[in-house]
Amino acid sequence: MNFLDFHFNEDLQNSLDAMGFESPTPIQSLAIPVIQKGKDLIACAQTGTGKTAAFVLPVLDKLSKNPCDDTKALIVVPTRELAIQIDQSIQGLSYFTSISSLAIYGGGDGVVFEKEKKALTEGANIIIATPGRLLAHLNMGYVKFDTAEFLILDEADRMLDMGFVDDILKIVTFLPKERQTLMFSATMPDKIRQLAKRLLNEPEEISIAISKPAEGVDQRAYLVYDKQKNALIEAILKQQTFTSVIIFVGTKVKAKELEKELKRMHMKALSIHSDLEQADRENVLMQFRSRQIQILVATDILSRGIDIEDIGLVINYEVPHDAEDYVHRVGRTARAETKGVAITFINENFQHRFKKIEDLIGYEVTKHPLPEGFGPGPEYAPISKNKKKGNFKRPNGKGKRPYPKSGKPTKPNSN
Q1: CATH homologous superfamily for 217-368?
Q2: Residue 21 CB: number of other CB atoms within 10 A?
Q3: Which listed residue, 61, 248, 308, 349, has the most CB atoms within 10 A of its CB?
Q4: Mean pLDDT over each residue of the chain, to the nearest integer
């Protein structure tokens, strides 16, 4: 199958040809025909599978065949980075058309807000927005979505995790009831299905490669104590040259600390986290994309929705709290059928988390030995998900540990 099979508008097809798009990905092959038929859709696909083009292309096709100045599509996303990325994708794919788009997101000062207000009132064919910022404009009364035909929720599971469900439901009240609603999500928990029932009308459902890292990802793990981690990063980067590296950490405090440590090692590194102003975050990403820096230290703000090509190595400095987040993090590499390496550091405290990851992806990730001279790391002995805690009972059978008057615990009665 190729993109000619979708019979896109000639100007849109010219954009695809200019960008070198030839064969659609599986999610594009399945989703685009459904959207072209005007059906509501709920689609589950992991990051890096081409889902942005899966919903953008049929929208652009319809708008290019029926040009106008009105706002016809609203795309709601969880983060400003994803809003910017989708806006950039639309600009590239619609290069030979007259379609306009606008990204609305938080951050910036009153001047930025006024610029957004002006753009919203003058109109753009496609609006891409984060929920909070969009509601701020909607509540002022000057934004009208009366002509909107598409509502698209991208990374819907992440928006629910971030507490945006009420904002989404409020935004929907500003839209026409007669519309086509598309929901894209990397996972499909019950809360997503419940939201879909409220917003979508007899939707088609598509699931692609749920919770599985791309085949091109070389997954590795190291059993390592926290005090060994920084030296291990240095050793890994000396063993093999990677043009671009993302290191995921759990907190913004750790991101700042690791950035300083990597610079102390004379590595070109910067961190990105929520404490940075929007302009600073964009500047960091620009330097990373242009290869001015080799290493980006990031909190989970980047685990989904950022399209940076040719990431050779992803390092999980800590085991992610949620198994699904592991898939999104390692999905930053080996995108679009390329190859990449994903390494996870497992300390003695979070081995059970990594076992959950292996249960989710359906196989064991190879545990590599530490380099020579490091000394031993912790033993890998995760608690089995089926293993139950001991049941200690008093002689009276009330199910509690028998504590003597001294307050010190004794062994349970073996009789």
Answers
A1: P-loop containing nucleotide triphosphate hydrolases (3.40.50.300)
A2: 17
A3: 248
A4: 85
List C-alpha distances in Å: 354 to 223, 370, 383: 11, 18, 10
For the entire predicted model, the pTM comes to 0.66
Q: 60 near 99, Cβ under 8 Å? A: yes
Token readout for 79 is: 């983060």
Buried b (16+ CB within 10 A) or exposed e, 355-373: bbbbeebeeebeeeebeee
Q: Are strands 126-129 and 101-104 parallel, antiparallel or unpaired?
A: parallel
Amino acid identity of residue 356, one-letter, is K
HEC sequence for 88-150: HHHHHHCCCCCCCEEEECCCCCHHHHHHHHHHHHHCCCEEEECHHHHHHHHCCCCCCCCCCCE
Residue where the block lists tokens 């990403």: 285
Contact 346, 369 (CB under 8 A): no
Amino acid identity, residue 161?
D
Distances (CA, A) of 137 to 152, 160, 167: 18, 21, 13
Q: Alpha-carbon distance 71 to 92, whole Å? A: 19
**pLDDT of 162 higher than 50:** yes
Sign of CA dihedral 192, 193, 196, 198: negative
Are 77 and 242 within 8 A, CB to CB? no
CB 104 within 8 A of CB 78: no
Is the distance from CB of 413 to CB of 405 less than 8 angstroms?
A: no
Assigned token pair, 10: 């000639």
pLDDT in tens, 77-90: 998 888 988 999 99
Instruction: Return d(Cα 347, Cα 86) in angstroms, integer.
Output: 37
- Whether residue 316 has pLDDT greater than 80: yes
User: CATH code for 3-208?
Assistant: 3.40.50.300
What letter would DSSP give residue 412?
P
Predicted local confidence at residue 306, as pLDDT: 58
Domain residue extents for the chain: 3-208, 217-368
The DSSP 8-state label assigned to residue 50 in this structure reads S
Instruction: Give Cβ neighbours of residue 371 (< 8 Å, ≥ 6 apart).
Output: 232, 235, 239
Identify whether the C-beta of residue 229 lies closer than 8 Å to the C-beta of residue 345: yes
Domains 3-208 and 217-368 share a fold: yes
CA-based nearest residue to 343, from 224, 211, 186: 224
Q: DSSP character for 340? A: E
